[in-house]
Every structure is written in C-alpha cells, then in structure tokens.
Design brief:
The chain is an alpha+beta fold and 472 residues long. The protein contains 15 helices and ten strands. The protein has helices at 8-19, 50-61, 65-69, 74-81, 93-102, 148-158, 190-201, 212-219, 237-245, 280-308, 331-350, 354-374, 380-393, 399-436, 455-462; strands at 27-34, 37-44, 87-90, 105-109, 115-118, 164-171, 177-184, 232-234, 249-253, 259-262. Helix 6 (148-158) packs across helix 9 (237-245) and helix 10 (280-308) runs antiparallel to helix 13.
C-alpha cells in the first residue's frame, strides 16, 4: 500500500500527475494559505457544492498563524477547522485518488500528516419522479434515481429502524462503482448475506458498464440456455422497503435507478405494487387474473395450432376455433412472423421521439395489420390471437419474465409443429424441467415455496392477505 510522503511538494506533484491536473479540464486544484502554511485542494468540477466549499475556504483563509502553530496532525486540524460533518483523514494514496474521483474534496496542508477527504459532493441528477414501469393508481409517486445516497435516503425515510443496515462495497477494478447492500440486521438470512458478500468479493471486472445488469451477469449461474430471470428489479422505494422488511436484501448500484431484490424466486413475479393499494379481495383478484392470463398466453398459440391443423380434434363447444381463413404462408410461419413483428414494433417505439410515438404506433398497427389481412399474408384469426398474447405480456410487471415466456412459447410452437401432439407434451415437460432446474442467483431453490414446499408462504404469494402486526 502506497502512502503519503512527509514531503508536501512530493505529495502535490504526485497527486497532480496521477489525478491529471492540467491534462483533464474538469480536475480542479487550487493553492491556499492557511495560517501561514501552504495548503492545496483537489476536486472534480461539477461534483462539489460550491457554497459549502466557499464558506470553508473563507474560514481557512482567516485562520491565524497562532492557531496553526499548535497543529501537528491533519486529524487535529479537521477537528478544529473543518465544520462539515462528513470528513475523514487518510494516508492511503489509492484511497485518496479514488475518493477524489468519487466526488470528495481533498485537502493537504504543509506540515500536517495525512489528507483530509471532505464529502461535499453533489452529483448531477434528476428528480425522484414516478418510474415509467411501476406506476400506481394510489400510493406514493416517487422513484429511485441514478445516485446511491438519495436512494438510501428514500429507504431510510420509510424504515426508521436502527437495525436497517447500508453495507458499502466497491466493485470494478477501474470504475470502483459503489454497491450497497441494504438489509435489516436482525431479520436478514445470514447465509444468504454471506453468500452475496462472497460473490461480490470475487467479481473481477474493470467496470460495471451496465450498472446492475453487469453485476447480475457477473454473479449469475452459467445457464445461458435458461431464459428465466434470476433477478427482480424495481424502481419503487415502497416495493424495495417492503422486501427489506420481509428479511430480503436490496442491492443498490450507483448510476442505476433500479435496485435488485434478492433472493429472487419464480413466484415473486406474481406480485405487483398496485395490488397492495387495493383491498385484499380486489388485490387477490388482480393477482390471480395476472397468473391465469400469463399461463394462457404461454399455451394459447401452440394449443390453437395443434387443434386447427386437425379440425377433428376441436370439440363441439369450441367450434369457434375453426381453421383460419386461407392465406399465403403456412399457419406456423404466420404465427412466427407476427411474433417478430410485435418485437420489431416495440423496438421501433423505443427509438421513436416521444412526440411521434403515439402516431407511429397507430400507423404501424393500422397499416401493417390491415394491409397484411387484405393482401392475404396473414389471417385475421392470427392477428386476434397474437394481439391477445401481446397485451397479456404487459400484465406482467417484469419484462424479463415476459420475454422468457415469449421464447418458451416460440420453442413450444416449433416442437408442436414438428412432432404434433407428442411435441406439445414433451415441450411442456421440458419447460417444467427447465423451471425446476433453474438456479437462483442466491438463496433457496427457484421454485420456493413450492419446492421445498411451504404452504403458508405459498398462500401469501398467491392470495393478498390483510396486513398483520409483526412482533418479531
């Protein structure tokens, strides 16, 4: 470990060279005279609170030589002359450089050993507006932002308990990204917490270029063929606080407005924030409706294809599931083309300017749909069923699970087309096997509380219950 030298000039030269003063236009360095002694501060332009720094500088410049004559260490100087609360003294050069790049202000004074790291940073950021993918009819309309400190404050505001712990980590050899584990000290699963700490300590990456997604990929089990999501994300502080109170761990990653909720299991995706702002009966109805619609969307097109290719399989009470209107391509190709067209429209809408998004969506749906039916490319029944499947995907709050079901639906459709009813049977069994063998990021099995079975926990996941006092 490299440490600060006793030579002030040597320290200034090394820090200027290492931090890039003069090479980078946003690295600010300024000399001061503090009680007759030479001093120097370093900071990143745009990170410091100008008003606070100005007040401290004015105070230091008025310091008398008699006051400084008795100072021998930086710690004693900080105790007397630095009024800001978040300050520490360090000798470690690597820690000092990283802290300055994180936004802290470094102060060196000739004759005082150590460097004062003053945390007066103020990252540029947006307001805590309601997230786009987690809107509620009732309840709070705030959301996480891209900075760690405001996100921690949003959780502290909801959980005023001294057991609430914010455990800081640094991940990334070059980026030194802040990663915070948030949990209740007296309720968290200790084995899960230790497992998560161990995984974080073993990450060997230069940077978390995609924030929480890079972190998840670094500790995710190697199952490239498995589309089921291993992590659940949220941008809502109330949802994250609820998970913390249940004994889970919330992982906050700097530069991301989403937090990771761990452990993540399959049945966790059946829950959605809106349900908790309605009475239990209504919340239960919405939850069961979502589960039923999502399961139906997985099997709708393969089952329909299985029946219409041989009309004698259709029972009398399902006579409306008749063979689709004649069209050019085979039915299988029609279904696959519409699956890909829906994704194409989604990607196009993401890259369309907001002012044109609604017009573009209507234009794409009307022109492509109407023209495809009239020209005989697609049958109207295909568009109806695929429209239901597309709308059903938006009932699921997790995009990752929606795309997992989409890929499984396409795979099931293909094996059904290739091997008829046996393909459908073995494809369904394959989906179940894939689900059972999915490895979670951390914690118990992916299908808990079904495997291993816990009836009480499973009932709470499927049925919205009344809030009850918790005396544990």
């Amino acid at each position: 470990m490299e440490v600060l030298s006793q030579d002030y000039e040597e320290n200034v030269s090394w820090l200027d060279r290492t931090l890039g003063v003069g090479r980078s236009c946003d690295l600010i360095s300024r000399d001061l005279s503090i009680g007759g002694r030479r001093g120097r501060i370093w900071l990143v332009d745009g990170f410091g609170l100008d008003a606070v720094l100005e007040r401290m500088n004015a105070f230091w410049l008025r310091t008398d030589e008699e006051d400084m004559a008795v100072e021998t260490t930086m710690q004693s100087f900080v105790d007397r002359f630095v009024s800001f609360s978040e300050v520490s003294v360090s000798w470690d050069l690597q820690e000092i450089v990283t802290s300055v790049l994180l936004g802290k202000t470094l102060l060196l004074v000739d004759g005082l050993g150590g460097g004062a790291l003053i945390d007066v940073k103020n990252y540029p950021g947006r307001g805590i507006n309601e997230p786009m993918d987690g809107r509620v009819l009732r309840g709070p309309h705030d959301g996480f932002v891209e900075a760690v400190v405001p996100n921690m404050a949003l959780l502290r505001r909801r959980i005023r308990d001294p057991q609430l712990t914010m455990e800081a980590h640094k991940v990334g050899l070059r980026s030194q990204t802040d990663v915070v584990l948030c949990y209740l000290e007296d309720r968290v699963d200790r084995e899960l917490l230790e497992e998560l700490r161990e995984k974080l300590s073993k990450i060997n990456l230069n940077a978390l270029t995609m924030a929480q997604e890079s972190l998840a990929e670094a500790i995710r089990p190697r199952q490239w063929y498995n589309p089921f999501p291993k992590v659940r994300y949220t941008e809502r502080p109330d949802s994250a606080a609820s998970c913390v109170l249940e004994g889970n761990v919330v992982v906050i990653v700097d530069n991301s407005p989403s937090v990771m909720l761990l452990p993540t299991r399959f049945f966790d995706f059946t829950q959605e924030t809106n349900e908790y702002y309605f009475p239990p009966l209504v919340g239960t109805y919405l939850r069961l409706l979502r589960v039923i619609v999502f399961v139906v969307s997985l099997f709708m097109t393969p089952v329909w294809y299985l029946m219409v290719v041989k009309p004698d399989r259709i029972p009398a009470w399902l006579h409306f599931l008749q063979e689709p209107s004649p069209s050019g391509p085979a039915l299988l190709w029609q279904l696959l083309v519409v699956e890909f067209l829906i994704d194409m429209l989604k990607m196009a809408s993401l890259n369309t300017p907001t002012s044109l998004a609604n017009s573009f969506s209507m234009l794409g749906a009307l022109v492509l749909g109407d023209f495809a039916v009239q020209s005989g490319w697609l049958g109207p029944e295909v568009l109806v069923y695929m429209a239901f499947v597309s709308v059903a995907a938006f009932t699921q709050p997790g995009y990752e699970l929606g795309y997992a079901f989409k890929l499984l639906r396409i795979a099931l459709l293909l094996v059904t087309a290739a091997f008829d009813i046996w393909g459908f049977v073995f494809g369904t069994i394959g989906i179940l096997v894939l689900l059972v063998t999915t490895k979670p990021l951390v914690g118990r099995g992916y299908l808990y509380p079904l495997i291993p079975f816990n009836g009480k926990a499973l009932r709470r996941l499927l049925i919205r219950e009344h809030a009850r006092p918790d005396n544990t």
